């Protein structure tokens, strides 16, 4: 192990560790830390050299802007204006898994916003994240703490796996509560547009403005002339090493179809992983079978998704077959990540 790792209790994080981590950020270093969504790879958002190190550590394309993380509501200095709709969303959902895109001020270096005139801001709910930002005394730019393209880490072990030796400090310890990255809402346009679905659902946002809609490009296979508005959503993403296929349709038929496909792969001498649910896990055989959780509780499915994808990497499966979920509520965010992990390889049962 090359990078120092410090385990923290998120209810009562050790202040000495947070002070040290905050100092590293202030001095231009990199710290991986937990949030309620996924682990983040943080640097001082106002220091362009520090932010540049994030892109290098992750192997991230330079045209993909970073979200900045704050610990209080005084964001006026980072944006041209806070639109009324953004204010309402902040009041309702911050701290929490919601990133708001606004027009950026000159305080935000262009490397942070990848040359865009806008910036995404969020206030995380996790105490370690909040404490770190307060100690740093600066906003923290942080993408998910994974090597670009891999599933985001929801456990500290996965952070270490991807970033050991590439960052100055790794802090955390507990599994992330939400397990999927924050919902991103573009507040520079009217009506506001969801660029990435997450733990704050479209239904919840429509309580504030019933015109909120989801960027139609993100649930579909990327095609020319139909590009997602969040630059990061165009890349193949969230992908384990093995290819993923999603089987959609009536659940009973899907189970039968998955079993049929499993047999074909076994005949070809391949090791198959199946992403099942508590309700269906008993139906399968002849594969490495893992449950994402109960279909009755889509939040638990979201929480486990990236972890299970990475476990299949550990098992060195050759192919992963996944059940599908209804695209409602949290199901929208789950299917968005699954489809991207699968490169939109979808089979209708
Ligand atoms: O939950 C999260 O948001 C996590 C944790 C660490 O806070 N962070 C995260 O960051 O998911 P990242 O960099 O993996 O994803 C940020 C996404 C990318 O798809 C990026 O293109 C988009 O946000 N984004 C950032 N700034 C943007 C902007 N100004 N306009 C449009 N999209 C933006
Ligand atoms: Mg990411």
Automatic annotation (TrEMBL):
Keywords: ATP-binding, Cytoplasm, Nucleotide-binding, Nucleotidyltransferase, Transferase, tRNA processing. GO terms for molecular function: L-threonylcarbamoyladenylate synthase. Its EC number is 2.7.7.87. InterPro entries: DHBP_synth_RibB-like_a/b_dom, Sua5-like_dom, Sua5/YwlC_C, Sua5_C, T(6)A37_SUA5, TC-AMP_synthase_SUA5. It holds the Pfam family Sua5_yciO_yrdC. It is found in: Cytoplasm. It catalyses: L-threonine + hydrogencarbonate + ATP = L-threonylcarbamoyladenylate + diphosphate + H2O. It is an enzyme of class 2 (transferase). Residues 15-200 form the YrdC-like domain. Belongs to the SUA5 family. Required for the formation of a threonylcarbamoyl group on adenosine at position 37 (t(6)A37) in tRNAs that read codons beginning with adenine. This is Threonylcarbamoyl-AMP synthase. It comes from Clostridium ganghwense. The lineage of its organism: Bacteria, Bacillati, Bacillota, Clostridia, Eubacteriales.
């Amino acid at each position: 192990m090359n990078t120092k790792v410090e385990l923290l209790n998120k209810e009562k994080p050790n202040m000495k560790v947070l002070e040290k981590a905050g100092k590293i950020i202030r001095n231009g270093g990199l710290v991986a830390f937990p949030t309620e969504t996924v682990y983040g790879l943080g640097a001082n958002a106002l220091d362009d050299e520090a932010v540049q190190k994030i892109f290098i550590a992750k192997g991230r394309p330079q045209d993909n802007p970073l979200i900045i993380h704050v610990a209080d509501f005084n964001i006026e200095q980072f944006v041209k204006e806070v639109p009324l709709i953004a204010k309402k969303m902040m009041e309702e959902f911050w701290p929490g898994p919601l990133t708001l895109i606004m027009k950026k001020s000159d305080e935000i270096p262009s490397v942070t916003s990848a040359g865009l005139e806008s910036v995404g801001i969020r206030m995380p709910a996790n105490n370690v994240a909040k404490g770190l930002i307060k100690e740093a005394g600066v906003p923290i730019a942080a993408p998910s703490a994974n090597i670009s393209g891999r599933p985001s880490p929801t456990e500290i072990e996965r952070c270490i796996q991807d970033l050991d030796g590439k960052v100055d400090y790794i802090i955390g310890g507990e599994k992330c509560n939400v397990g999927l990255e924050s919902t991103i809402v573009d507040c520079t346009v009217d009506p506001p547009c969801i660029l990435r679905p997450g733990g704050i659902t479209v239904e919840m946002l429509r309580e504030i403005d019933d015109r909120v809609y989801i960027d139609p490009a993100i649930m579909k296979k990327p095609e020319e002339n139909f590009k997602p508005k969040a630059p990061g959503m165009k890349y193949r993403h969230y992908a384990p090493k093995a290819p993923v296929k999603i089987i959609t349709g009536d659940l009973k038929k899907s189970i039968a179809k998955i079993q049929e496909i499993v047999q074909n792969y076994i005949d070809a001498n391949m090791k198959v992983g199946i992403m099942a649910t508590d309700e269906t896990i008993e139906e399968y055989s002849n594969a490495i079978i893992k449950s994402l959780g109960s279909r009755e509780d889509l939040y638990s499915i979201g929480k486990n998704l990236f972890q299970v994808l990475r476990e299949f990497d550990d098992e060195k499966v050759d192919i992963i077959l996944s059940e599908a979920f209804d695209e409602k509520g949290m199901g929208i965010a789950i299917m968005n990540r699954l489809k991207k992990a699968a490169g939109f390889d979808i089979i209708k049962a």
